[in-house]
Write a structure and sequence with these properties.
This protein is mostly beta strands and about 70 residues long. The chain has one domain. Helices cover about 0% and strands about 35% of the residues. The chain contains no helices and five strands. A five-stranded antiparallel β-sheet has the order 1-2-5-4-3, with no helix packed on it. The protein is globular and about 40 Å long. It starts with a strand and ends in a 20-residue tail after the last strand.
């Protein structure tokens, strides 16, 4: 079963979403929209990080997740 892991660094105000193992990160590509794509050695995107994320929540961040069949 596939997993998606979501982390929120309160200090840097940065959420991190991982589709794969974060330890497999080989390179990072900046998209220009303050989004960093984490890639493995094969160039496959295994996660992304959003810089300067603004949250109105003082203590927590709610994450909604939906799946759909293609």
């Amino acid at each position: 079963m596939a997993q998606v892991k979501v982390f929120h660094d309160k200090t840097d105000n940065t959420p991190l979403v991982c589709f794969g193992n974060p330890e497999d990160e080989y390179e990072v590509e900046e998209t220009g929209d303050e989004v960093l794509l984490m890639k493995d050695q094969d160039g496959k995107v295994i996660g992304f990080e959003k810089l300067n994320f603004i949250s109105t929540a003082s203590e927590s961040v709610r994450v909604a997740f939906e799946t759909f069949a293609i």
